[in-house]
Write a structure and sequence with these properties.
heterodimer; A: alpha/beta; five-stranded mixed β-sheet; two-stranded antiparallel sheet; about 25% helix; B: alpha+beta; two-stranded parallel sheet; 4 helices; flat
Amino acid sequence: MSVDSFKFMSRTLANSLKVWPYVDTSGEEIPWTPLEKKVSECRVAMISSGGFYCRDDKPFDLEREKREPLWGDPSFREIPRGILQEDILAAHLHYNNDHALEDFNCMFPLDALEDLLAEGAIGDIAAYHLSLMGYQPRLGTFVKETAPRMVGRLREMDVDLVFLSPG
Amino acid sequence: MPFVIEKIAAPRAVAIEFPFSMIWGHPGDREMQLRILKHMLEAAETIEQAGAIIELPYTWPEEDTKKRDWFPAEPPPWMTDQEKINEMLAFIQNGDPLEEV
């Protein structure tokens, strides 16, 4: 690997992630779902773990995380297609939100996705994109409740292809 | 972060060495966002083996790396004092990542 996973981290965070108790997948096959359409025919949605939410929606609960630092809000938010910069906010305590508040596309490139559609590179774009807040040390609630709800929402929208973007 | 991608066994991934708060490039750089999206589309179309990671050749400018402006102004809650760091270290050593809280 030539991409350095730890280049932009504090030493404390890098050392933690190197020994993190990741969910053990070593005995399992890597999941695989073949893409059944050409990408130019796919309806695409994006998911960002950058903690994005609409201005008129409820923010991710950062106050509880401040009280209980091993807790991260396990919920998700829907972001309508065509959202404007003034209508989207970010709630995430683990990166500088200022760049996204200037241009959310540097974390969640929904406008460039529209360019892909205009070029005919993809077939359609879902009516809603999804966002979560990626700091989730204890994943139980997210894995058992939130992720299945997100998948259900994507299926309701007949999404063929999802791009996940880290936050 | 290929290190984490391998740990969690993601089926398809594209990796880039850009900082957290600007993982798709600098604010306003729609051309870079579009370029990365096209790499992801290509990955979706061409990766045939589960676990494949495609690394992109872009680098973050050295002068911007010196700014270290991707860090939040305040450290995240678990790093604010030694007691909280110790709680995290205890979780890392003995915690259950699938615990429901």
